[in-house]
Design brief:
Length: 237
């Protein structure tokens, strides 16, 4: 499922990572297994109690409420998650990323009858696949969606850089940095390089060389690039 971006009233861009259809189906199956296990336990209890017919009907009416309200109760009181959703690291949110009000959870729960129950999930699957924001009918009506809480890290956000197999390092002092510090250096370097901001690169080069206590043999751009390459060499060997 693709990411989608929402502009809030304060003109703040929010990047949402919509949950994939596979994640949502697996989450539903986990929840369904929990409901089935609940009913199996209830059947065993009913058999052990040896109730009268009238008492048994009353008992079933009471014990059927938790599975009937399963999704509404869990999502309302567990920040948009059910056990299945939690296992798949997905949850229900409003389109702006905030927590839905109870009315939002209620609307999507009521429309579950159309989306999932009556059509065996067919309508929900079609709506999610054709709606870039990952919404089924209940989500569209409630102004909600289901997002993944898994962090997707792109290559440029990591400490990794490409180095040849016969690479020869120059600065063993780079090991004074941690992975997080190198990640920040790489981010600043790439942003400055992309924007042609030479002053930032110069300051970054001076800061890095000062921490490493070395005198750069290259110009600032080349030096910072060499530091990133050397760090990868020494930490990956």
């Amino acid at each position: 499922m693709d990411n989608f971006q929402i502009e809030t009233a304060q003109n703040v861009s929010i990047q949402q990572n919509a949950a994939g259809i596979g994640e949502r189906i697996l989450a539903y199956l986990i929840d369904l297994l929990i409901i089935i296990a609940y009913f199996i336990v209830v059947i065993m209890v009913v058999g052990a109690l040896d109730l009268e017919v009238a008492e048994e009907w009353a008992f079933w009416l009471v014990v059927s409420l938790p599975p009937f309200l399963y999704f509404l109760i869990w999502e309302t009181f567990w920040d948009g998650k059910t056990p299945g959703k939690a296992a798949m690291k997905i949850k229900v949110v409003r389109l702006d990323g905030s927590r839905p009000a109870f009315s939002g959870y209620l609307i999507r729960w009521l429309l579950r009858l159309i989306d999932i129950t009556l059509a065996s999930g067919g309508i929900a699957v079609v709506a999610i696949l054709f709606k870039g924001t990952g919404q089924r009918l209940g989500d569209m009506a409630a102004g909600t969606t289901v997002i993944s809480e898994k962090q997707k890290v792109r290559f440029h956000q990591t400490i990794l850089v490409d180095i040849p197999e016969d690479y020869i390092p120059v600065y063993p002092q780079v090991t004074v940095f941690s992975d997080e510090e190198i990640r920040k250096i790489k981010g600043i370097y790439q942003d400055a390089k992309r924007n042609g901001n030479h002053n930032v690169i110069l300051k970054l080069s001076n800061k890095v060389s000062g921490i490493m206590q070395v005198t750069p043999q290259e110009k600032p751009f080349q030096f910072v690039s060499k530091v990133l390459e050397d760090y990868n060499y020494y930490t990956q060997k």
